[in-house]
Amino acid sequence: MRNHGTKAILLDKEMFKFKQWLTFFALCFAFIPTSILADISLPKTSTQLGCEKALQPKSEEQRIDLTENDHHIYVEAIGPSGKALRLTKAQYRERTLNEDIDPDSVLILEDIDLEIDMPFVSGVILSQPLSIEGTHIQVLCEKMNIPLIYSKNAYSKFNGIDNDLYATLRTIDQAHLDLTNRSHSNRNLKSVLPKRYDRHLSDWVVSHGTNKPREIVGDKFFPLARLTRDGFTGSPEIYTYTASVYETFINTYAYKGETLRKIIQLETRDLQHKTPQATKSALARIRQAFREVQLSTGYTDIFAKLSNDTPIEGPLSIRSNNDVEDLIGAGLYASAKADSRKPRDLETAIRKVYESMFTYRAYSIRQAWGLKEENLSMPILVHRYIGHERYNGVGKIQLNQDDEPEMQLTLVVGNQTKATNPNAQAKSLNITLSLDENSQIVVEGDKIDERLTRSVKKFYSSLESHTQRHLKMMTHSPEFLEIEYVVIENKKPGELEFQLLQYKHRYSQELVFAIVTGQLRREALDEELEVADFEGKMEFYDIATALKTKPLSELSFNEIQLPRQTVRYALVLYQGRPQIITWNHSFHSEIKNKLSRSFPQVEWFHGGYIRLYNSGQKLAFERAMMESSTEVFLSLFRLHKTKRLFLKAIKNTMSEKMDFYASFSENPVPILFNMKTQQWTFSPRKF
């Protein structure tokens, strides 16, 4: 994962925390008995701790504020440092198409070319705003945690910037650029993905509605197949050429006496240790091999078989469908059009998609996530090419403040490519759909005609039950759902019809990081909460089980002692009784969200970490999470209630008579409870 800038402490945030800290101590002095205060040694102030030194930029660093004029932060992130690179629109287009922009770059652009995929970089500063929000450029930056901002006159403002300087673009709370002559870039991970899967036993052509695994059918096809199995009928007839086709292709097609698999292995061996130019040359040789390989004697003609097994007439859309593509990026690989299902047409289009796997951009993204190149595969998503549509578009579905799905659509006039790669002249409509308190569909946004109004309402209705489940009832809920679609003339005269082409679950960076690094199984993203008797009475144990947590009483202290193990806890109220639940993964925000959505009768009161302290003799409950710091600092009533409930829950669930420490805020002074003396005290020490 990327360094989120913890070393660069902003003055305003530090002063705010310091003021909160002083307020807390003032209240403590007002209410704590003097017998306790006599034992307290106040910690040093932030100045005494040396924070004033951390706040001052080093002599070789320069900071440029980006928020003085008009600006817009499209993607909030803190990227790694990269070489500052200032480009005109023409230079940007030429260097992007020639794969001549390294990932170790922070781009400062005169204007961005929306019709080409953005390269993988460390940050992007635009002098012109995006013509349409939510397109592939913004989506890719969100997926890859790339800072993306618009800052008026940025191109001229940064005239004279030395591109030998390293730049770190920061957009959390405020936007600025830190320049230094030293690099701190380090974002490569070690991944367990993609999995090595036996892909040789699968059928070659599969229709949607199948239950085959993602590794076989691909990342884009998999959720559409699940929707079809659940009764959704708003997609065109979609098929996938499975991963078995790709495996057969690289094993049976040869170039200069070597199979494609062997060529890939030889060219990518130790590639991560080579220079960017050497890497680009090796990838270019692989792409050339994909274009020129021929079927070895004695093997089945793949494309003749695909032609016979594809039951779609007319032009086809041939789209990339890699099994981790939508998890770690967007627009990584190419799509193509086949004029027919004839073997030659299919072969030309499919080779183009396969070849796109080895662009420098795609390879750089995979390397940043540490993906296993030797396990890479490429299923193909296939459907009838839809031309002459009235609108095509992208959309986002997420829960609104009433905890109900809200659909935000951008409809662009034109062919399939314009919604994801719109040009500056693209005409678009922006529409928001949701349910009111009477369950009536409400349409807001740009004015649309009656035909389109009926069509968007019907589209929302067809998806609403599915999105409810996927946003609320999954074990690991996505932050939002991302869709692509076209709007065509219906067979019924005068009516319009939505056709859903993609339905993607977008997860938090924390969750994606856990999946990629193997902290969480990829299959866990497809699991739903096991909630029985949802509205009725449930035993708390059943709720804990459904959330994949367990009561404190079941926690083995051996789990806490495991190397680098983090155990989380939450203090909750159920039917007036305090309970403590524990779990061993890091997704505390998900646990809290699921409690509020799926089990509103359970109140989350407090949460934090559990650690063994002092050679295992004391149990430490420390560091609040998911609480408002201001609320905890200033509400002594809530603090007292938390202490009382926490103690009651501990007494009910802990079998061992050991001391424990409990910290009810992120303040450096914890509140401690001694089980033997049954007394609370304040301690100046952090755990």
| Main sheet properties | 8 strands, mixed
Class derived from helix and strand content: alpha+beta
Distance between the termini: 26 Å
Count of helical regions: 22
Instruction: Please give the number of β-strands.
Output: 30
Question: Gyration radius, to the nearest Å?
Answer: 28 Å
Regions with pLDDT < 50 over 5+ consecutive residues? 1-59, 624-637, 663-670
Helix content bin = 25-40%
Global shape: globular
Mean pLDDT, all residues: 79
Q: What share of the residues does DSSP label as strand, in percent?
A: 15-25%
Strand order of the largest sheet: 1-8-7-3-4-5-6-2
Describe the secondary-structure layout.
Elements: H1 11-31, H2 34-37, H3 51-55, E1 62-65, E2 71-75, E3 82-87, H4 89-97, E4 105-109, E5 123-126, H5 136-144, E6 148-151, H6 154-157, E7 166-170, E8 176-180, E9 205-207, H7 214-217, H8 221-229, E10 238-241, H9 243-252, E11 253-255, E12 258-259, H10 260-268, H11 276-292, E13 294-295, H12 302-309, E14 316-320, H13 325-328, E15 335-338, H14 343-355, H15 360-368, E16 380-384, E17 391-399, E18 405-413, E19 428-435, E20 441-445, H16 450-472, E21 480-489, E22 496-506, H17 509-516, H18 540-546, E23 550-551, H19 557-561, E24 567-574, E25 577-583, H20 588-598, E26 602-613, E27 618-622, H21 629-634, H22 636-653, E28 659-662, E29 671-674, E30 679-682
Parallel strand pairs: 3-4, 4-5, 5-6, 27-28
Antiparallel strand pairs: 1-8, 2-6, 3-7, 7-8, 9-10, 10-16, 11-12, 11-13, 14-15, 14-16, 17-18, 17-21, 18-19, 19-20, 21-22, 23-25, 24-25, 24-26, 26-27, 28-29, 29-30
